[in-house]
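S., here's the first fold you wanted:
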Amino acid sequence: QVQLVESGGGLVQTGGSLRLSCVGSGLTLSRYTMGWFRQAPGKEREFVAGIDWSGGSTSYAEFVKGRFTISRDNAKKTVYLQMNGLKPEDTAVYYCAAGLLASIQAKINYWGQGTQVTVSS
């Protein structure tokens, strides 16, 4: 049974930081491209960041470049999203995702349950 479990969300003030974690089980995490997506109320789910199998290549949505960093530790079966300089518009449920294609945006095989990030103004 494949599971992706996110944690690390919470309430933070504008300009603050959070680190999200996604722990995988029931899969060999090193075989998967991993990524983070987010969804705010009333809006579509959108891509935030992606990372390849080894962690050697990353990609980011334009609105988080320079503020967020995605990383992974395959030995710990964990993917991270370091979020700095948070803004109220970053408020959303953040979802971890795993895919077998080179681009996480091409196909998602598994989703996590999401973790809430709220940024106060």
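And the second, which I think is the more interesting of the pair:
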Amino acid sequence: QVQLIESGGGLVQAGGSLRLSCAASGRTFSNYAMGWFRQAPGKEREFAAAISWGGGSTYYADSVKGRFTISRDNAKNTVYLQMNSLKPEDTAVYYCAGYRTSIYYSSSSPNYWGQGTQVTVSS
């Protein structure tokens, strides 16, 4: 059993920044590839970013590339999403995701999910 807990969401004006954190825990927890998804009102959940177990490879959706940065600290079992130059269209519930593989594959679906944290960007 793996538990993912997000934090850091909130309200910010357009052009501002937020950093989301996702802490992972579990009795037999192992480090896997991790990612972030988001779901805006009335829209499907979409991929935002992912990072390999070692942290050497990162992946981003075109909509966030250049503005968001994903990183991880395996010693702390924590993954981060630094969000800069936020836009109103970034408003969504952001979900932390974990994969059973150490390498991220775009065709795969997450095996573990956090509860989500709300990010609201005002104009």
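Why I say that: The mean pLDDT is 92. The radius of gyration is 14 Å.

Talk tomorrow,
H.
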